[in-house]
Amino acid sequence: MQRPLISIITPSFNAAGTISETLESVVAQLTGDVEHLLIDACSNDGTLEVTGKFPHLKITSEIDRGIYDGMNKGAARATGEWLLFLQADDWLPSGALDAYHQAIEEYPIADVICGSAEAVKESEGQWVNIWSVTDADAKKLTAENIALGEPMINARLFRKSAFEKLGGFSLEYSLASDRDFLLRAAETEVIQQQLDPITYRYRWHSGSSTMTEGNALTTRLSQENLVIAKTHLPKATGRSRRALRQWHDRLTVQAAMNALEECRLAEMLKCFKEGTSENPGWMACFAGEILCSLPGFLSRGGKTKSQILKVKQGSL
Fold first, then answer.
1. pLDDT digit string (tens) for 167-184?
2. Concatenated DSSP letters for 92-128?
3. Which of 195-199, 219-223, 267-271 has the lowest mean pLDDT?
4. pLDDT given for residue 217 in this prediction
5. Less crowded by CB within 10 Å, the N or C end of the chain?
6. CB of 224 within 8 A of CB of 175?
7. Residues 282 and 189 in one domain
């Protein structure tokens, strides 16, 4: 049998509400040299009943250690030369696989092929664009784009040998391991080719683990990002170091603002210490953020965003 050229890997857990649309987006452009692996984490909401209706799928269902463990398992079991990670609540836009096939032929030395991406949110029965990355410079595999922009792990097609050489996704991070992986890729200067077409569409919703939209995972995601920034800063130089330092500033300033809003003084002091440890001018960044937030604070009648949220939830 012909070896698949592209292996699509979809990790899933209790995704019955969205996964049918995800899989249909693949079926609509499926070719003979593409395989699709579903790595399910023992869903109990009917996900497997839905996915069982798609005969093209190679389905595995077993306990895992989170989404990145599922993605690593899929990569290990894939037989294709190239890997594409498709989440169970997103889509492959029409023509995405054709664009990747063409790029593989045109750029034989590439280790990574990156298309454009967009995130959409349903509003009043319509899909509204939240953000998009189409500029070629914004898609380049640099520390600046990865730390300060959208990492877009799913809009990137990876040569399997390059993925394995980088060691796959670290299981130390349950929400932000894609940023750590891409930073490692940038540090080793793997060869990436950018494409114009949109090859990935994210679904922005409150239940997503990647598009957190201020849900319960947001704080944990920020904490993981901060650990990643601190891990990569010591070996960074030049523009990469400046970008990572700016990311570190942003993360610690936001954490300090959250602590200030909720009057958690001990945590705020911890943020001061963390911020100034990397940037002696961090206090100026924090003061600037307070000044930027002041108009909104006054317009809310002297209430913080946290207080407003509590009122909406009926806890005040």
1. 999 999 999 999 999 999
2. --TTHHHHHHHHHHH-TT-SEEEEEEEEEEEETTEEE
3. 219-223
4. 75
5. N
6. yes
7. no
Residue 112 in contact with residue 211, Cβ under 8 Å? no
Whether 75 has a pLDDT exceeding 50, the answer reads yes
Which pair of structure tokens corresponds to residue 74? Answer: 């899929």
* pLDDT of 295: 86
Alpha-carbon distance of 254 to 289, in angstroms, equals 8
Looking at the chain, the whole-number percentage of residues with pLDDT higher than 70 is 90
Collapsing DSSP states into helix, strand and coil, what is residue 11? strand
Q: What is the pLDDT of residue 48?
A: 97
pLDDT at 303: 63
- Report the 10 Å Cβ neighbour count for 14: 16
Specify whether the CB–CB gap between 191 and 162 falls below 8 A: no
256's tokens: 């300090």
Give the angle subtended at the CA of 104 by the CAs of 103 and 107, to the nearest 5°: 75
Write out the residue range of the structural domain in which residue 275 sits: 236-312
> Would you call 305 exposed, middle or buried from its count of C-beta atoms within 10 A (0-12, 13-18, 19+)?
middle
Q: Are residues 60 and 168 in the same domain?
A: yes
Domains held by the chain: number:
2
Instruction: Confirm whether pTM is higher than 0.85.
Output: yes
Q: How far apart are CA 86 and CA 83, in angstroms?
A: 10
Residues 297 and 179 in one domain: no
At a CB cut-off of 8 Å and minimum separation 6, what does 281 contact?
Answer: none
